[in-house]
Specification:
There is one protein chain. By secondary structure, the chain is mainly α. The protein is built from twelve helices and three strands; from the N terminus they run αααααααβββααααα. The chain has two domains: 2-102, DNA polymerase, domain 1, CATH 1.10.150; 116-288, hpI Integrase, Chain A, CATH 1.10.443.10. It has helices at residues 2-6, 11-31, 41-50, 59-76, 88-102, 116-125, 131-146, 214-225, 245-259, 275-287, 292-299, 314-330, and strands spanning 170-173, 181-186, 200-205.
């Protein structure tokens, strides 16, 4: 019975499986949701609503990990994923959308935006004659200038590498040797599913006045790392595999730790990860009064609502709107 409940012999995996499956057992006992297997789709939804009141307060993503483990448990015993039963996907999507809007989440370790001084300090400490330093700096500046999601440079796992950039996704214009603009093709994003075949293009112009130009870094990395394999991963391990997210974050925090000596303020390294580049980019553009609709286009947000959190221009805009209303009085509007 313990083997069936905990799943396998891998101790690390066993610990997570045990924790999540025992949580479902506690839920079923608490609300009388029996049988455990096969699990009804409605039971999964009740479970998602039960979890925030029982220790899992990280919102949809955190609770979904527990529900996914229940689905895995069902599939291990030949029942299939309850969320994929006929007629269920539509209602599961509706439930997901409502859940994300209505169920409060706590984020005690929400990641912070990376700041310009941090990026410059890491660049100053890098040795660009080293392949890994050049690769990382090229990725850092690409992420910061485009606001791209971290999965395009470092996917969460090898099986989730379909979003990762490849050499063929980069175009140097007018040429690689005299590049003024680099075009980057993101073949799929969270807002543009891969199946929809709707690529999202971004571009970075050459910044000749900067000591660390993002185009120059990307060009140097491309020339050094390209092995005549257009489909090779742009940011990869020495073995050619996509750069793992965990490795990316570990190295980023190490570089930030070294860079702290150049900065006047100490900070908690745990509050920074791959998403900090995207937050830093959008926060900076917002502070420069870039309006929300342009932020949404830059970040490939699904809606302008997602971009409004980064804007600081709206109060000034509202003051300017009062002038428009006043002018209407003057002309008898």
């Amino acid at each position: 019975m313990l083997f069936v409940l905990f799943g396998g012999n891998d101790r690390a995996k066993q610990s997570k499986v045990r924790s999540r499956r025992l949580k479902f057992v506690h839920f079923a006992n608490d609300v009388g949701a029996l049988p455990l297997l096969p699990t009804k789709p409605a039971t999964l939804m009740r479970y998602m609503l039960w979890l925030p009141s029982n220790g899992v307060r990280s919102g949809w993503r955190g609770c979904l990990q527990y529900v996914t483990e229940v689905s895995n448990w069902n599939q291990e015993h030949g029942y299939g994923d309850p969320r994929e039963l006929p007629g269920v996907p539509f209602f599961w999507r509706r439930f997901r959308n409502n859940y994300q809007h209505l169920v409060l989440a706590e984020h005690p370790m929400m990641k912070l935006p990376l700041r310009l001084a941090m990026l410059e300090a890491m660049a100053l400490d890098a040795d660009l004659s080293r392949d890994d330093d050049l690769r990382d700096l090229a990725a850092y500046f690409l992420l910061f200038f485009t606001g791209a999601r971290i999965g395009h440079c470092a996917p969460p796992s090898a099986t989730a590498s379909h979003h990762a950039l490849r050499f063929e996704d980069i175009c140097f214009h007018p040429s690689i040797m005299d590049c003024k603009i680099v075009y980057i093709c993101f073949r799929s994003t969270k807002t543009r599913p891969r199946a929809a075949d709707l690529p999202f293009w971004h571009a970075i112009s050459r910044q000749e006045r900067l000591p660390f130009c993002p185009v120059a870094l990307l060009r140097a990395h491309f020339l050094r790392a390209y092995r005549q394999r257009p489909d090779g991963f742009l940011f990869a391990t020495p073995a050619g595999n996509p750069l793992p997210r965990s490795t990316f974050n570990t190295v980023l925090r190490r570089r930030l730790g070294v860079a702290q000596r150049r900065l006047p303020v100490a900070f908690d390294l745990r509050r920074f990860s791959g998403i900090s580049f995207r937050k830093g980019c959008l926060s900076l553009l917002g502070s420069l009064n870039v309006p929300a609709y342009r932020l949404a286009d830059h970040a490939d947000h699904g809606t302008v609502d997602s971009s409004r959190a980064y804007t600081v221009d709206t109060v000034n805009d509202r003051a300017a709107n009062s002038d428009l209303i006043g002018s209407a009085f003057l002309v008898g509007g």
